[in-house]
# Entry
Amino acid sequence: MRRKVLVGAFGVLAGLAAIAWAQLPSIPPTPPMPAAEAARRSAWDFNLVAIDGEPLPMSRFKGKVVLLVNTASFCGFTPQYDGLQKVHDAYAARGFTLLGVPSGDFKGQEYGSNKEIAGFCKAKGVRFPLAEKSVVVGAGAIPLYRWAAAKLGPDDTPRWNFHKYLIGRDGRLIAAFGSRTEPGDPKLRAAIEAALKAPKVPAA
# Structure
């Protein structure tokens, strides 16, 4: 009975996600980082702040494959948290990590405080690293996302919650996957597998 209730709840969330997707608001364009600057940089050159307020330099992940995801707690795609954690667990031993960046950019579907976000994610079984709540689109987008906009272009910037960027061991941006791409999607898994086969980057 409980399983049926859970399946039904996820079905309702998926339905709400489809409705929200069909009514997407106009997303402000993300000003890309100047091309020359973006060309000089890799993902490891940027610094984030962790959900607990501690520094979270991207250089911490140098040599790993990273799936960067802008997350939200009240989105129809929020059930993807479970699949994302499973992807993280499946590949972590091979040099892979998920990195969540909570954001309220899309219809305010995130808690107001980092403490609330952290509590929600802990309750959902999320154990992969989380940055603090951040802006990922528009003029106020954090530098990492402005760099990504410069590297892949405006068509591959986030249009909704749970947009996914795949970053290689060398810090280069490999590809983007939209919100509707489930964590278990074969194309996403294949891209991760290919990235993991790349040579490890020597420590600086």
